[in-house]
Amino acid sequence: MKTRRNKREQARTNYIQLDTGKCEACWECIEVCSNKVFGRVNLPWHKHALIIGSVNCTGCLKCIKACRFNAISKVSITNPIEKTYKKNPLPGFIINIGLLLTGFLAVCSGFLIQFSYHMGHHGITDFNKTVLNINYSGWSNVQKIVILVLSLFMAFHIVRHWTWYKTIIKNDFILKNKQVFILSVIFIFVAITGYIPWIIDVTGNNEIARKSFIVIHDKLTILLFIFLILHVAKRLKWFKSTFKKIRNN
Known about the structure:
Elements: E1 10-12, E2 16-19, H1 28-32, E3 38-43, E4 46-51, H2 62-66, E5 72-74, H3 80-85, H4 89-118, H5 136-160, H6 162-170, H7 178-203, H8 207-248
Antiparallel strand pairs: 1-2, 2-5, 3-4
């Protein structure tokens, strides 16, 4: 038999919210949802539906119609989260595509510099060596530009989703969204360790320190690549559904 808590648990996606205190564990929401947004807490003494894939929710609202106990409701348009996601989806889609493309370009240029000029060269860089008709300085400039553009896209992304970040932190949902937070933190460190060698190079300061930061940047880039792949795989349905909405509009 399901026990009810004095304080009802709340969970939400961009479009719907679930009051687990009202849930009677009929599992209708799980059956009608093809995007695997819902999961189960199915203990003998505690049963209710649970939102486990909030990023997969496309706002079809089938779960609301299926729920006989009014445990699922549409996020109110007065709610700050809903305001964030009710905007024209095109800017958000462009920002995410921009993040995706510049992220992969940053990773690829970082790998190219690392394997072609740094790794296995014992601190000696062949500045005259060319890869795809571009020398070391050229690839360094390419990566600087890509990281700068990536930083701009990331800044727009954070500003656009600032309410979401604050809400997740305030409601202690970080663990449920740890992949996004880890990716954000890694990106910040990749950007910082990418900018510092640039600044050292411009100011003409310690060359050893510059190379040390480049090595750290290269290693963090590998982590960024891994988490970027995981994030894209998790958000693939969002990209497809959002593109479909934009095309239909």
